[in-house]
Amino acid sequence: MSKFLGDNPIKKLAIFGAGGHAKVVADTAECCGWGSIEVFDDNWPSEQLVHHLSIVGDTNMLLARLQEFDGVIVAIGNNEVRHTKLCELANAGALLTSLIHPQATISRYASVGTGVVAFAGVVVNTGASIGFGAILNTGCSIDHDCVLDECVHVSPGARLAGAVRVGRLSWIGIGASVRQSINIGCNVNVGAGAAVVNDIDHSMTVVGVPARDLGR
Asked: Quick one: pLDDT band at residue 96, thresholds 50, 70, 90?
């Protein structure tokens, strides 16, 4: 049950993950009004602190306490690990939530899935669809009618033009740009600053301007 301050409930959030990404997730959660935040990580008890927040337990402790939380978010940058943990928590009945920073701009005609984080400066335009567990990192932009599948990570400052499709577990590097109507497969890595002007097959790594394949 939530604690109360006067007539207003203090929402209680569990964050799983305690790396650098978790610091930004926790900061975003505070900006979104979550009044009580607890952090869990499987490196506990050897790790005790993430920024100003104590790490209070591991996966098993979180699973045992799920009913205490009004929301649960996974703060792990690695797409595959994040997807696995989100699915584990969802199957256990966790109330997975999304966090949208107050300084992010999300069109009311866009669709945002569960478990998504969108940090300050993010822009998501009309008709875009953001899939389960995606990370929209600081200052990235997702233009009209883009489709991001499960657990995609768009890094800070990356730009996706209109009608881009990004497959599940793909990563768009910092400052990368993707031309309109490009299809990016699953498990793709797009290097920092790359300019993607052609479709990319599954499980490829591309770098450079224009982006070229480095293979699987």
From this structure: very high
pLDDT given at position 2: 32
Q: Which two tokens stand for residue 84?
A: 């696995």
Tokens at residue 4, please? Answer: 């109360």
Cβ distance 144 to 126 under 8 Å? yes
Farthest CA pair distance, the chain: 59
Nearest to 93 by CA among 122, 130, 116, 64: 64
Between CA 40 and CA 167 the distance in angstroms is 29
ω before 156 within 30° of 0 (cis)? no
Least confident of 8-22, 71-85, 150-164, 192-206: 8-22
* DSSP category for residue 67: G
Strand partners, 213: 206
Cβ 176 vs Cβ 159: under 8 Å: yes
Identify the pLDDT of residue 9: 58
Q: How many CB atoms lie within 10 A of CB 209?
A: 13
Nearest to 15 by CA among 52, 7, 6, 172: 52
Residue with tokens 């799920």: 66
Q: Which residues of 179-200 are buried (b: 16+ CB within 10 A; e: fewer)?
A: beebebbbbbbbbebbbbeeeb
CA-based nearest residue to 41, from 78, 71, 16, 72? 16
CA distances from 63 to 15, 90, 92, 154, 214 (A): 12, 10, 7, 29, 40
pLDDT band at 10 (very low <50, low <70, confident <90, very high): low
